[in-house]
Amino acid sequence: MKDKPVKIKSKSVDIAVEKVDEKLFEEAAEKSLADSSQFGRRSLSTTAKPKLLVKKSNKRIRKLFWPSLFTFVAGAAVYESYLFIENLFSLNSIVGIAATAVAGLVVVSGAVSLVKGWLSRRKLRNRKSKQMAFSQLISENTYGESQKLIDDVNSEIGQHLDLSGPISIYTGQKQQVHNDRELIQLYSQTVLEGLDEIALDTITKHATESAIMVALSPLAAADMALVAWRSSKMLQEVSRVYGCPQTTLGRIGLTRQVMTNMMLAGASDMLADAGAELLGKSLTATVSTKVAQGIGVGLLIARMGIQTMKLCRPVEFTDDNKPKLSYIRKSLYNKITTILKKSEPSKDAVKVKGEQDDRD
Amino acid sequence: MSDKSSIKRVLYKVEQLVERGIDKRVRIAVTGLSGAGKTAFITSLMNQLLHIADNDQLPFLRAAKEGRILATKVSSYDELHIPEFKYKQSLDAIFDKKPTWPVSTTGISQAQLDIRYTIKNEWLKKLQKQSQLTVDIIDYPGEWLLDLPLLRLSFKDWSMQCHELLEQSELDSSWREQAVELIYQQPLQDDKIAQVSTEYKDFIRQNFSQQHTYNLLQPGRFILPGELAGAPVLDFFPVLDIDILNSDWSTLSSDSLIRILEKRFNYYKKQIIEPFFKEYFEKVDRQILLVDCLEVLNNGYQNYRNMQFTLSELLKSFHYGHSNWIKRMFSPSIDKLLIAATKADHVPPEQHRELELFLQKMLQGSRNDIQYEGIELETLAISAIKVTEAVMAEHQAQKLMCVKGVELSSGDEVINYPGKIAPHSLSKELWQEQQYDFVDFAIPGNLTSSILPHIRMDKVLQFLIGDKFR
After folding, report:
1. CA A232, A233, A234 angle in degrees (round to 5)?
2. InterPro entries, per this entry (chain B) (predicted)?
3. What beta strand segments (E) does B342-468 contain?
4. Which residue(s) pair with A169 in the sheet?
5. Which end of chain A has the smaller Cβ count within 10 Å, N or C?
6. Looking at the partner chain, which of A7, A29, A173 has a beta carbon nearest the beta carbon of B350?
7. Residues B304 and B193 in one domain
8. CA-CA distances (angstroms) from residue B426 to A217, B46, B354, B421, B422?
9. Using CA atoms, how far apart are residues B217 and B158, in angstroms rounded to an integer?
10. What is d(CA B212, CA B307) in angstroms, rounded to the nearest whole number?
11. Neighbours of B411 (CB within 10 A)
12. pLDDT classification of A352: cutoffs 50, 70, 90
């Protein structure tokens, strides 16, 4: 084996010794990676599971539907607008120019938001790959590879939030000897847990707001619009906290993922929250129907918010730090009841079931 | 009115009861062979906890990170006959102008720490804001731990084991030649027995304490008699004559030499070992096993096998299974075992994972048995007192991650690349090919902070007592 121990007296020999800096750490890590593959390192890959095959031919034709429809509609629209503008020109050139200018504006702004949306979607995809990279480093327990990833994430988040405080705590606590798993854990608990708190506050705020709006709004249709509006606003803000902000178009992608996740995770979430939900039901049962609806909507939005957090957080949640719906529900319930009590102490607000029965 | 006051009284009583229920006690058994670093470990553990309020180097102790641990103090314990752990002396030695490692233990000692913390559990918090965790730590010479496997052996078994180990070691047989002259079937005077026994003790001490043939260093009090020095209970030795070992002993008269030796051996087992472990390891909740892997790596294959054998014998004694005597003797309450590779600061940080894997492989069999019993088990590379730093050095156009520190033997500052630890078990041939040179480092004179630098002591604390801060 080429690997022989070396011992050097510092004083006797003039030898190039450097303090270990980040770059050298990376080199060493690469080396150790190469060395360890020599020992037949077995990584914990998850690809060993069987995969369901997809019938390709069928899918290809189905896939063509949306693009072709889009092209058709877009082509028709362009043609139609061309005719429309030409028509206007024939009426009056000034009106025609104005219409052209407006059409140009539509095209430019549309293109810009398309590009932005595409960028933000790429950011989300990028975030997903970071999540995977982090969990791989955690499971393999390597040394010296995580710092670069952490710096990347720091600079991404740093564009939207001032992270200097938590980062200085992180650098103060990290030691040269910490391996990747420990560094990521440390980063997660010094920097990211602060972000989790901000995100949870945002979610609570939006959930409470929409709960109150729904509780007060007289129209069912307005409720739906409210939910759509508030939830999309919330997704935007929460994703911004984690440094991968989603724009209007990008949000569609995020919303779709959040919804899919909620449906997939829904069953397990429901089981986990079952105990809490029972308690929640007895609470909602004591307040009037409209308020109960409001709380229901608030909970839905909160759940969407938590799913967004899961998608956007660079390091995946562990059992210790995963956000709990019960936390939001409690403050939601407290806020909504106190607000409604204050605003309408005599009517519609909080009623004990018995009283309601008496009135009836 | 009277109703209200009586309710208050009841509530107060409930509160007191709860307080007593919430206050907790953990007893930690620090186990490890001599030289594994038990004293340094306990000193560092106490140091970290006693400075908990201004110690920001414990990020992985969750309760401390949450700011819930308020303060720690050394308190007096109930077992008044046990001397106190010499924390101050150990610390003084470390922070001295000419620092030295804390002296190794020659007797038993105990320390008790009271840790005050804020309760996290929402329901308990309503009854009581703060609570107290009492941690008992016991220090004792590692040599005595070797007695534990003796409890399962008879005098004949023990002699047989010594015979086999001596055969294997192919060493100086001077004592054995002398022992051949003994006539085991006949009585022998007490002073003659004492003389032969002293010679035997000197013989094993001289020949095997460097060799790490730990099971020949039994009984532990042959090496470190403690308060038993000179007592006749220690005047015995194994029978190494194979003919006599294979013969039938049932016809021997009770005043024959063999019977006398057997009697003393049994007395030692019954009156010395059993009470010792019964007293100190009863009611143990958590156990940490400290292993000095570097010594094993430095000394090669035979030492590896010896250490593996000794440690698995040791862990077998601590087993928690149904058929085990220890189950009958102590109520088995150990629910967490931490196996720690000490002196991790002597190893470049990029190799800590390999060090952990090496230790895991070494104790694979025992770990499997322990995990089967449902015990929570963890392996960590730790350093109670960190005395080196990692540097990159270029040697023959190769960049190597080394450790830099003051060499203990020479007092010079050295940069050491100890060789690459293989993360899997090596065959005998590979052991001979692979060379290691782990240097013993001294404590540098420039330790300024009163908190000892460490590697992963916070993870140790989290594993051993972290779950108690609820």
Report:
1. 90
2. P-loop_NTPase, YcjX-like
3. 376-381, 389-395, 398-406, 413-417
4. none
5. C
6. A29
7. no
8. 74, 37, 13, 10, 8
9. 12
10. 7
11. 9
12. very low
Higher-pLDDT residue of B252 and A21 is: B252
Distance CA B416, CA B43 (A): 26
Q: Could you tell me the two tokens for B439?
A: 């240097």
B325 and B269: one domain? no
Burial of A131 (0-12, 13-18, 19+ CB in 10 A): middle
- The rounded distance, in Å, linking the Cα atoms of B467 and B285 is 12
User: What are the backbone angles phi and psi of residue B397, rounded to the nearest 5°?
Assistant: 60, 25
Chain A residues with CB under 8 Å of B436 CB are 5
Claim to verify: residue B418 and residue B339 sit in the same structural domain: no
* Inter-chain touch B392–A20, beta carbons under 8 Å: yes
- Amino acid B43: pLDDT: 93
Answer whether A319 touches B (CB < 8 Å): no
- CB-neighbour burial class of residue B457 (10 A; exposed 0-12, middle 13-18, buried 19+): buried
- Cα(A29)–Cα(A10) distance, rounded to whole angstroms? 25
Cα–Cα distance for residue pair A161/A242, rounded to 1 Å: 9
Identify which of A5, A28, A142 has the shortest CB distance to residue B399.
A28
- Location of structure tokens 């027995």: B193
Q: Whole-model pTM?
A: 0.76
Q: What is the pLDDT of residues A250-269, one digit of tens each?
A: 566 667 766 666 665 444 44
Which among B247, B277, B307 is the end of a domain? Answer: B277
Per the structure, the complete domain to which residue B329 belongs is given by 2-144+280-386+449-468
B433: closest chain A residue by CA: A1
Are B100 and B172 part of one and the same domain? no
Query: Same domain, yes or no, for B253 and B366?
Result: no
* The total number of structural domains that make up chain B: 3
Shared domain for B264 and B287, answered yes or no, is: no
Residues β-bridged to residue B132: B116
Burial class of B323 by CB neighbour count within 10 A (0 to 12, 13 to 18, 19+): exposed
Please state the φ and ψ torsions of residue B338, each to the nearest 5 degrees. Answer: -110, 125
Indicate whether B50 and B191 sit together in one domain.
Answer: no
Look at strands B286-291 and B336-341 and give their pairing. parallel
Read off the pLDDT of each residue in A262-283 and give the average, rounded to a whole number.
51
Shortest Cα distance, chain A CAs vs residue B383, angstroms: 10
Residues in chain A, overall count: 360
Long-range contacts of A252-260 (CB under 8 A, 24+ apart): A252/A117, A253/A117, A253/A121, A253/A124, A254/A124, A254/A308, A254/A311, A255/A231, A257/A124, A257/A311, A258/A304, A258/A307, A258/A308, A258/A311, A259/A304
CB within 8 A of B451, min separation 6: which ones?
B47, B48, B51, B54, B55, B57
Structure tokens at A174: 């990290």
| CB proximity list for B85: less than 8 A, separation 6 or greater | B42, B46, B109, B110, B111, B137, B139
- Edge-to-edge strands, sheet with B398-406: A6-9, B413-417, B398-406, B389-395, A17-19
CATH number for the domain that contains residue B120: 3.40.50.300
Which residue carries 């941690």 as its tokens?
B135
